[in-house]
Structures are given as structure tokens and as C-alpha cells.
Amino acid sequence: MFKIHCLNPISQVGLKNLKADYQLTDNVNEAEGILVRSASMHEMDLPDGLLAVARAGAGTNNIPLDKCAEKGIVVFNTPGANANGVKELVVAGMLLAARDVVGGIEWVKGNKGDENIAKTAEKEKKNFAGTELLGKKLGVIGLGAIGVKVANVGVSLGMEVYGYDPYLSVNAAWNLSRSVKHVLNVEDIYAECDYITVHVPLLDSTKEMINADAISKMKDGVVILNFARDLLANEKDVLEGLKSGKVARYVSDFPNPTTAGAEGCIVIPHLGASTEESEDNCAIMAVEEIMDYLENGNIRNSVNYPACDMGVCAQAGRVAIFHKNIANMITKFTALFGDKGINISDLTNKSRGDVAYTMLDVESAPTGDIIAALEKIDGVFRARIVK
User: Fold this and answer.
1) In sequence order, what DSSP letters do the residues of 260-314 get, joined into one string?
2) Whole-structure pTM value
3) Per-residue DSSP letters for 83-139?
4) 346 beta partners
């Protein structure tokens, strides 16, 4: 029986996929798996028995990834599960920036007592007139699951779309419209595009990438859209760009004291993935990932350990080992099994940065003393019997 704890409300559409040998628990200290959305785990004392954390969403800034890696706790996310919901809101953001719909609605509310409001509106509507998206240039920075969808819908809207991603995956390339112009320098997007939307993860290399220097290279009257992470933009620099007229609109899905109510900012209350469909899709994927890992040791969509898949174990047993990515580890593992008289029928080893993951299928059922011996090897974080 595997015990799962939910740190946030998780869609029942996903939870109902948990098999009969899974039990939801209110006690996090007895959980082998945690499902989480936005709750911060940085101050948590991680339970000794915790094996996996699955984030029902893409961002994992609320999870201590390095701490989890050192404890042999796999952290999963659900890339692409909420992509369509975010894509649709980005389109809404572009339309809100192009046409002063919000201002027009507020004008109507403010004049609700005017018996001749229809006639008055015909005189006033010029104050809310805008432009169309058709024919405008859209720059998409980051062509992951969301960025590809945004780029493709931009093409469908008749925009001239430029895409930038130095790490474009083969899968993303296959899904990207051939009409998207793939540029090799982000400054080409700054120089050419009327609308610029950012869809990259928050890393040291991307933090505040939209700053005064980047804005200075953009076209006058540019619209900047940020539905990825607020810290991707130096928002004080963005406000200066709005004051000078260099930036026409800044559309963000992340309310904060800097942008809330600021002139030229259209700030949405973090609605990007807040659709029933997105929440259901994220929950379904998170549950599938955590079950495959707990039952089979397979890792898919982890953010702190490498992908690794050995399918369902057909042998007597399977052992998973989390360890430092250093030389001679496999030799030590196989020697230990050899000393115990246990034959290894299959083995796979994958690494990611400073950490590595090894799975071994064995012809004799592994025991606790094997795990204890493995964990005494210098450089091993954790070992566990999968089967």
C-alpha cells in the first residue's frame, strides 16, 4: 500500500486514477508520495519515507530540488498539461493590449445611468480604438510546450511569427508551424517584433532577461507579455519603458505591488493554467508519473533526476539507486551483488549534472541487507527495493 498526501487540493479527475493499493493520507509524515500545486515546501521537514513529489503544473520554484535530490526524492512536473489554457490566455492578453477593451468596459460601467448611453458610446468609442493583430509581428521567446502553441496560434491569426529557442527539442520542432521563422539571436526578436511573449523557465540565466538593455533594443510601441514567471522581467525597467512610451503595454499574469494598477500594465490574477481542463490534465499526468515511479522505478518528467525507463520488471526483483555522478559507482554496485551471489539480468544508468540514477533487475529477490550495504557506499544518497 502506497500512501499519498496532497499539499493542495488536487483535481478528483486525477486522484480517481490512483489504483486500489494507493491510499490518500492527511498525515504528510507517513506519505511516500506528495502531490502539490503552489504550496511552498522549502521550509518543510521532508519525511524520511518520502520517495517522490509530483507538481501538478510546470513550475517547481516552490520545491527544494537540490535538497530532494540529495535525499533521493524524485521531483516530477507536468510539462504541457496546462499548455492550451496558458496559450488561450496569452491570445486574450494580446487582444486586450491591442484593443482597449478593459477601458471601454469600465467606461460603460461608469455611464450606466446615461439613458442615451448608446448614442454617447458612438461618440466616445474612438477613445478606446486599437489595432488588429493581423499582419503584426509576434516574437515568441522559448519554444517549449506552451511557446509552440502560442507561435502556431499566432500564425493562425495572420501574424508574422518569429521564434527563438537555443534548446529547441526535436519534438517541439515537429509540432512547430513551418511558417514560424526560427531566429538564432534573441535580439532579432527585440528589433523586429510588435508583440513579444516570453515562455522560458526561471533560471539564473533568464532572471530579469527583460530589462532596460533588452527594452532599448525593442521597437517603439512594443507590447511585452509575461505569462511564464514575473521574475523574468525587471518590472521597474518595464515601468520606465511604459513612461517613456517605448513600451505600449505590459501584460502580466503575476500581480505584485510593482505592476498592480500601474499605468500601461494589464495585470491578470495568475489565471494562466486556472482552467478546469488544465487542472484535470495536470492532476492526471502527476498521478501517472508518481505511480509509474513508485511501482516500477521509472522516471519521466523529473526536474532533479534523469529520465529512465525499464518498463515493468519481469525478474524476481528490481533495485533503484540514487547517487553522485562520479566514476566507478557501477563497478561497486555490481561487485556488491556479485558478493551476495545475486545475478543481475539487466541494468541501466542515467545521469543529470551531479546526480545519477541506476536501476538493476535481479534474478533473486533483494533484501534489506542489500539496501543497507548499498547505502554505505560513499556517494550513494539512497537505495530502495522497487520489487
Assistant:
1) TT-TTEEE--S-TT-SHHHHHHHHHHHHHHHHHHHHH--B-SBSSS--B---S--
2) 0.82
3) HHHHHHHHHHHHHHHHS-HHHHHHHHHHTTT-TTHHHHHHHHGGGG----STT-EEE
4) 361
Which backbone phi and psi does 135 adopt, to 5 degrees? 85, -10
Half-sphere exposure for 1 (CA within 13 Å, toward CB): 6
Q: How far is CA 131 from the centre of its chain?
A: 32
Contact 320, 297 (CB under 8 A): yes
pLDDT score of 84: 95
| Cell numbers linked to 139 | 516574437
Count Cβ atoms below 10 Å from residue 134 Cβ, excluding itself: 9
Provide the pLDDT for residue 254: 96
Gyration radius of the chain's alpha carbons: 25
Please report where in the chains the cell 494589464 appears, as a residue: 266
Q: In whole angstroms, give the CA distance from residue 139 to residue 198.
A: 8
Residue listed under C-alpha cell 522516471: 299
pLDDT tens digits along 33-83: 999 998 999 999 999 999 999 999 888 989 999 999 999 999 999 989 999
* 161-205 pLDDT per residue, tens: 999 999 998 889 999 999 999 999 999 999 999 999 999 988 899
Cβ neighbors of 40 (< 8 A, separation 6 or more) are: 62
Q: Is 55 helix (H, G, I), strand (E, B) or coil?
A: strand
Give dist(CA 138, CA 151) in Å, integer: 8
Question: Which residue carries 507517513 as its cell?
Answer: 30
